[in-house]
Amino acid sequence: MKVLLVDDEVELVSAMAERLGFRDVDADWTDNGESALAMAEETDYDVAVLDMKMPRLSGLELMELLADRHPDMKFIFLSGHGSEADFKAGCAAGCNYLIKPIQLEDLVALIRKVAA
């Protein structure tokens, strides 16, 4: 299983990738949507974990672009803002949504669930 993490908080996303690796989840990361699109052209990701609020390209916008180009890719949304509107938008797009701060074990369980 290959996972793409996209979050504009570099320290968070890099630490998350490292910690997922300790749990046998192979994860690449980036801090922006444009880079994520390029990475997805080079590597087949099973799951993308996307921050809802990022500059220039939101998690929902990125999901739409990735899903169009990679129809088998599954998505999980993360948000530190946790608004009801974000939650509803995330659910409408797939209903795999965690609010920051997340527990890594919750993320691992959700990654394995959506990838199954």
From TrEMBL:
This is Stage 0 sporulation protein A. It comes from Pseudodesulfovibrio hydrargyri. The gene is spo0A. Residues 2-115 form the Response regulatory domain. The keyword DNA-binding applies. One of its GO terms (biological process) is regulation of DNA-templated transcription. It comes from the Bacteria. Gene3D superfamilies: 3.40.50.2300. Pfam families: Response_reg. Coiled coil: none annotated.
